[in-house]
Design brief:
The protein has about 650 residues and is α/β, with parallel strands linked by helices. Helices cover about 60% and strands about 15% of the residues. The strands form 3 sheets. Strands 8-9-11-12-13-14-15-16 form an 8-stranded mixed β-barrel, surrounded by 4 helices. A 5-stranded mixed β-sheet has the order 2-3-1-6-7, sandwiched between helices. A two-stranded antiparallel ribbon has the order 4-5. The longest helix is centred in the first third of the chain and has 62 residues. The chain starts with a helix and ends in a 7-residue tail after the last helix. The relative contact order is 0.05. Keywords: Membrane, Transmembrane, Transmembrane helix. GO terms for molecular function: catalytic activity. It comes from Aliirhizobium smilacinae.
């Protein structure tokens, strides 16, 4: 590569470089040359007046010679000002050569303008000056022989001519000697020029080589910088990558240990990123990650180290004496920014963020343990509903061990029937009639005891058993539906809860279609309960909810009022039932505010032609108040506890609803 760079200088570019060097050298010597020329010209004038005095022709010659000197100086000044030695070196050399030639002619005219010129007598000293000037011009002008010879040749020709014209003895012999000197000067000038050109070429090539080496070095440095960026930076978001994060975390702990400080590690990921990525495409997912990293930079500022661990997962490292307190504040800021909608392909999309963090040395002794602790806190935040932050506490490890055991044994529990379903009655308050049942999952683990439904759902999600779990619960619901007509409840519905997370993993509607069709169930008696979160997240659940509607299933919104449902979505999706959140029911007989809310919701249900059912009714007073407010139906421990399917017939025979006061 370096050889190629220098070889490119061997053609026109090399010649141009040589011309520029010759022009610059000629211009540099011009003031000295002209000064010597003027001084020697004056000496020649004086020498010519030794025997003949100052003659008119001698003065005219001296004036002409000075005129050529002044003209050459003016031309040289103009050439320098216009930088012609760099921009137009060939023209510069031609001008210098022309000026030298004119000066040579002026000097060559000297013997011819002097009367009674005695070549081999008193005027022999003028020959010495003339030949000395010519020789000096050749010696000084070795860089450009043409310019030097342009001055020397007219002078030597004049000397040879006047010697040949002389009648004195020895004139011809001296003429031959001058011719020989001319030949020697010519060869010397050409040889000197060749040496100078060789030196110039070598210098130019060396300069080109140095420049090439400099460019190569700069290219290597740039490549090294690029490699360093690739090695330590995430190519999409430009924040640090996983490798750089590992180094930073280790060094951060070392620094914190040396200064007796804290180190906080926050791990966060974007909620529903996979669904957004699958819905809009990977380019939209990249756009979301870029905007998320930008918001993260704004939230963190200069205080922390940011890295992308992979996918939609990011990490922030903060050190200092107050790192734990700063981490809590930062987590809150990140959540605030994460709640702001992202605009993807012109559509606002709410993704949200979940954050978990842990601190050294409070929660871990090593970088690996700190990462595990922060990761546990993150999963706790996600399991508790996402869109929130959690700090690690020691109980999380015990919970993680418990959850891991649940995940390991869940598949066997589903297959063996150890995981069962219970049913909680739903009662029409005015007539005390049973209108339906809600399906609830139950599992008593051999060593862990009773497993809570949220734990079961979380384990199914982690172990990729969500569809199997839903299918098992739906199958139990279908079996109850096949027996209800024989129990005198042919129009009673059975509801099944579906987590918003389910819609991200598989087609809930297709799974339910397969199971209900296999049992010959009327879809109008099969109710699907979803949360408000699923209604709002149309990117994730929209098409499946439309499929559920087309299949003829009833659709209920669970825990209504706990989130931020849009009435437009409720109407668009044709929701059949709203289940009021327990918080509005507890103590309603003494809470005027809750009474107002429930009354308004009951009116809303009538206006939208939606059934209303209150959850969590535990006392006769609550049931009576709800009935008085126009709430048509309810469920809760007061009205009927969850029970296995084989207990429903006995419960229907013996149940007694305490009348409202």
């Amino acid at each position: 590569m370096l050889q190629d760079s220098t070889s490119q200088m061997n053609a026109p570019r090399l010649e141009l470089a040589v011309r520029r060097a010759q022009a610059a050298a000629t211009l540099e010597r011009l003031p000295t040359t002209l000064t010597v020329n003027a001084a020697v010209s004056f000496s020649a004038l004086l020498m010519s007046s030794i025997n003949r005095g100052i003659t008119t022709f001698a003065v005219i010659w001296f004036g002409a010679t000075l005129a050529t000197i002044v003209g050459r100086f003016a031309v040289g000044t103009m050439v320098k000002r216009r930088r012609m030695d760099k921009l137009r070196p060939n023209l510069c050399l031609r001008l210098m050569t022309g000026g030298a030639f004119v000066s040579g002619i002026a000097w060559g005219a000297l013997p011819f303008v002097l009367s009674d010129f005695d070549a081999l007598g008193v005027d022999g000293g003028i020959y010495i000056l003339m030949c000395g000037m010519a020789t000096g011009a050749v010696l000084l002008g070795t860089g450009h022989a043409v310019t030097a010879l342009a001055f020397a040749f007219p002078v030597h020709i004049a000397v040879v001519t006047t010697l040949l014209m002389s009648k004195a003895a020895g004139g011809q012999l001296l003429a031959l000697n001058v011719l020989a000197l001319t030949l020697v000067l010519y060869k010397s000038s050409m040889k000197g020029q060749a040496i100078v050109i060789g030196n110039i070429e070598a210098q130019v090539k060396a300069t080109a080589l140095a420049q090439s080496l400099s460019r190569a070095n700069a290219s290597i440095l740039s490549a090294n910088e690029s490699l360093e960026v690739l090695a330590n930076r995430d190519p999409l978001t430009s924040v640090a990558n996983r490798a750089a994060f590992n180094v930073s975390l280790e060094r951060g702990i070392e620094n914190a240990r040396a200064h007796d400080e804290q180190l906080a590690l926050l791990i966060l990921d974007l909620d529903r990123f996979k669904t957004i990525n699958d819905t809009f495409g990977h380019s939209a997912g990249d756009e979301l990650l870029l905007e998320a990293s930008h918001r993260l930079r704004e939230a963190v500022g200069e205080r922390g180290f940011i890295a992308r661990l992979g996918g939609d997962e990011f990490a922030v490292v903060i050190g200092g004496a107050t790192a734990a307190a700063e981490a809590r504040q930062l987590a809150a800021r990140i959540l605030d920014r994460g709640r702001e909608p992202f605009v993807i392909r012109g559509r606002p999309v709410v993704s949200g963020v979940s954050v978990g963090f842990a601190t050294w040395p409070e929660h871990a002794e090593s970088a690996a343990d700190l990462f595990v602790s922060a990761d546990m806190a993150l999963y706790r935040a996600k399991d508790e509903g996402r869109g929130q932050w959690r700090e690690f506490d020691p109980s999380l490890k015990a919970r993680a061990d418990r959850q891991r055991r649940i995940e390991q044994d869940l598949a066997g529990a589903i297959a063996s029937g150890a995981l069962t379903v219970f049913f909680q009655p739903q009662v029409e308050l005015a007539q005390n009639g049973v209108i339906g049942f809600e399906t609830l999952v139950r599992w008593t683990h051999a060593s862990l005891g009773a497993i809570a439904p949220p734990e079961i759902v979380a384990a199914a999600h982690t172990a990729n058993l969500s569809e199997a779990l839903t299918a098992s619960i739906a199958t139990g619901a279908c079996r109850l539906l096949t027996t209800l007509p024989s129990l005198g409840l042919p129009e009673a519905t059975v509801s099944v809860n579906v987590s918003p997370r389910e819609f991200e993993l598989y087609s809930v509607a297709e799974t339910l279609d397969r199971i209900t069709h296999a049992h010959g169930i009327d879809p109008a008696l099969f109710e699907i309960e979803i949360t408000e979160e699923a209604i709002l997240d149309t990117l994730v659940a929209g098409e499946q909810l439309k499929h559920i509607e087309r299949s003829g299933y009833k659709l209920a919104v669970d825990d209504f009022g706990a989130g931020h449902s849009s009435l437009a979505y409720l109407v668009t999706l044709k929701v059949d039932r709203l289940k009021l959140d327990r918080r509005f029911v507890a103590g309603i007989e003494t809470s005027f505010q809750n009474q107002e809310i429930v009354g308004a919701m009951a009116g809303l249900g009538k206006a939208l032609a939606m059934d209303i059912i209150a959850e969590g009714v535990e006392t006769a007073e609550e049931a009576a108040t709800l009935r008085g407010l126009g709430c048509p139906a309810a469920q809760g421990y007061f009205l009927g506890r969850p029970m296995p399917v084989d207990a429903i017939a006995g419960w229907l025979l013996t149940r007694v609803l305490t009348p409202a006061a």
